[in-house]
Amino acid sequence: MNFPLSTSSPTGLLLAGLFGLVFGILLEKGRVTDYNVIVNLFRFRDFTVLKIMLTAILVGGIGVAVMMRGGILEGWHIKEMNTLGVILGGGLFGVGMVLYGYCPGTGVAAIATGSIHALTGFLGMVVGGVFYAVTYGWVKTAVLTVGATGKTRLPESTGIPEFAWWIILATASLLIFRILGKRGKANG
Known about the structure:
Blueprint: H1 10-29, H2 35-42, H3 48-69, E1 80-82, H4 83-100, H5 104-112, H6 116-142, E2 148-151, H7 154-158, H8 162-187
Antiparallel strand pairs: 1-2
């Protein structure tokens, strides 16, 4: 089965917009467009974001695997692993998320709810994106080459089969949900 729909086609653009709208509504319903919910994750007081992210990773990953097996998607589009880039980018992203109170997706959804401070932070993201684009030549040679391992996935780099990684991820997620559920009952 081939699914020849591109996001550059009119139908693909319409579907992308529709899915984006639904995604934003779900972010709002999940309360992750609320500054306090995200900041309180980092204060270890509200684990809504963690629960949503674990659920999204599991459902999205399983969905991609099923579509791959069903022939709807063709091949993995794996990005190259650049260790220093991931460490620096992850650190910058984390600091930005704590200070801003949103990740990029929840920030845009918060703007749609009328949040002025989310709009201000979004402008900072745009400036950061432009800065990255302007300095990319230097970043590519000075940062992305340090610890570069090429296109690799956990199954290939660890020797643990993909199915086992799914079991590990699902088990760890369920364990985290259980711990957080008990913690919530003890605090409630």
